[in-house]
Specification:
Elements: H1 59-72, H2 80-93, E1 97-101, H3 104-114, E2 120-124, H4 130-136, E3 141-145, H5 156-162, E4 167-173, H6 182-192, E5 195-199, E6 207-208, E7 211-212, E8 219-223, E9 236-240, H7 243-252, E10 257-259, E11 262-263, H8 274-284, H9 287-305, E12 311-313, E13 327-331, H10 339-348, H11 367-370, H12 379-387, E14 388-391, H13 400-413
Bound molecules: ligand T4K.
Ligand T4K binds at residues 50-54, 103-105, 127-128, 130-131, 173, 199, 201-202, 223, 225-227, 236, 352, 356.
């Protein structure tokens, strides 16, 4: 097996205690274009290497919780495991209320409705489409603001420009787990009398100015989907320091019921089942090992990609805590291959890198048809969406992947 010099000697160091990082030898060495699968050579990996595999904590602890919940015959409807998870998450995140939900999208919808948002709400187009869909689903107009090309997060100056008399709120997104400009957004919200909330789906465990994401704005929304840093199979939560808001959201996630036979609010079914809470409680116990694996993967990528001109790896702020869940590279215009050619070359090798969040929400339906001119005000979004590739990471990443990716990029760069 041949690999990039930068990856030699580091490969086994990324396996944290209790986590399995399978070593999967690539089926070939890559020195030149003829060695690439897009040129007809054997793909490097037989089984696909996914952009992320679910992080799964202590299996025995999870199964024991599942046994107990089956014995108890309490499977859902605000069960004891959901309540325990909410309490533990509130402590971990440093927030008064955590309202667990069945997924992040429903959590967004409920938070948006509980905050009374209507008319127009400003958000980035450069986010997973769920952020925008949660507004459109409630016939609220998503108004897309441009991002800062350095951080990929929403640009407060652009937010200010998008405010109209119909604007009622702002949704900041902590993209890639790096906090949005919280203070600047809060100042705009305060001055313009808007509600501020955050889509924190990527940012579990991350800090902003030393404080954990979760208690900023009027509410923050997390996703605990299988592919997230912290997962409950499917799941999500809204966090808030506002007591009344938390109570309203608890009613809303349970059809509007306050007690038996007494609905007091419009509602839906946003409840988290007990088996999801069992997964969450178990995964909460191994967060540190997941962070360590992600951080080690990131370090390995930084070393392996260092000498490749035209490829820029997004770093994490060393003064903040991060979950290191996203390995994001940007491809310069000067690079010999286009971003899409690189993704095609990696897929051919069995490495399922992704073009998140291309082409931007505004370029997807229904938004493309409803707001056909939105892109005119989103020049940075278009540039970033055309440059980004998200690379595989997580506790089960075969470490050899990093060397193969670096070799593919080096060959494509013509170096
Ligand atoms: N806001 C933001 C900013 C978000 O990123 C998301 C979700 C949300 C809101 C909404 O939260 P949820 O309603 O989802 O809780 C995935 C996830 O499905 C989605 O949750 C996530 N963002 C988004 C960024 O990524 P896809 O379309 O990329 O999923 P898929 O099926 O292609 O899976 C990604 C990779 O993971 C594949 O290579 C396969 C692998 N995988 C996936 C699953 C589900 C596994 O190995 N095992 C699995 O169980 O959206």
């Amino acid at each position: 097996m041949t690999m990039s010099p930068a990856t030699k000697g580091n490969l086994r160091s990324i396996a944290p205690m209790g986590m399995d990082t399978p070593s999967i030898a690539p089926r070939k060495a890559i020195h030149s274009r003829e060695d690439l699968a897009i040129a007809g050579a054997t793909p490097a990996f037989v089984d696909p290497v996914h952009v992320g595999r679910p992080n799964i904590g202590d299996r025995a602890a999870f199964l024991s919780r599942v046994n107990d919940l089956l014995d108890s015959r309490w499977l859902t409807n605000n069960g004891p495991l959901v309540q325990e998870l909410e309490q533990k998450l509130a402590r971990y995140l440093g927030v008064r209320h955590v309202v667990a939900m069945c997924n992040g999208t429903i959590a967004l919808e409920i938070a948006i409705r509980a905050l009374g948002l209507k008319g127009e709400v400003i958000l980035p187009s450069y986010t997973f489409i769920a952020t925008a869909q949660a507004l459109q689903w409630q016939e609220i107009t998503p108004v897309f603001a441009d991002v800062d090309p350095a951080t990929h997060n929403i640009d407060p100056a652009m937010v200010e420009k998008m405010i109209t008399p119909r604007t009622t709120g702002i949704i900041g997104v902590h993209l890639w787990g790096r906090a949005a400009p919280v203070d600047e957004l809060a100042e705009i919200a305060r001055r313009r009398h808007l509600s501020l909330m955050f889509d924190s789906a990527h940012a579990f465990g991350a800090t902003y100015r030393g404080r954990r994401v979760g208690a900023f704005g009027r509410a923050e929304v997390f996703s605990f989907h299988a592919t997230k840093f912290f997962n409950c199979f499917e799941g999500g939560a809204v966090t808030t320091n506002e007591d009344d808001l938390a109570t309203t959201m608890r009613y809303m996630r349970n059809f509007g019921f306050e007690t038996y036979d007494k609905a007091v609010h419009v509602g839906t079914n946003g409840k988290m089942p007990e088996i999801c809470a069992a997964m969450g409680l178990t995964n909460l116990e191994s967060l540190d090992a997941v962070v360590e694996a992600n951080r080690a993967n990131h370090r390995l990528y930084a070393e392996a990609l260092a000498g490749i001109d035209g490829i820029h790896l997004l770093d994490y702020d060393p003064t903040e805590s991060s979950n290191w869940q996203y390995v994001v590279i940007e491809v310069d215009r000067t690079f010999r291959a286009s971003r899409d050619e690189i993704v095609a070359a990696l897929h051919a090798e069995g490495i399922l890198a992704r073009k998140y969040f291309w082409p931007g929400c505004h370029n997807m339906q229904p938004f493309r048809e409803l707001y056909p001119h939105a892109g005119l005000l989103l020049p940075n979004t278009m540039v970033v969406a055309d440059r980004v590739i998200v690379l595989p990471t997580g506790t089960t990443l075969p470490p050899e992947t990093v060397g193969v990716i670096a070799d593919v990029l080096r060959v494509l760069s013509g170096a």
